[in-house]
Amino acid sequence: MTKVTDGDTLHMICDGAKHKVRLLGYDTPEIYSPKCASEKAMGLEATRLMEGLVAAGPVTGVTFKGQDRYGRDLAWVEVAGRDLTEVMLASGLAVVYVPKRKMDWCR
Question: Measured in Å, how far apart are the chain's first and last C-alpha atoms?
Answer without folding.
Answer: 36
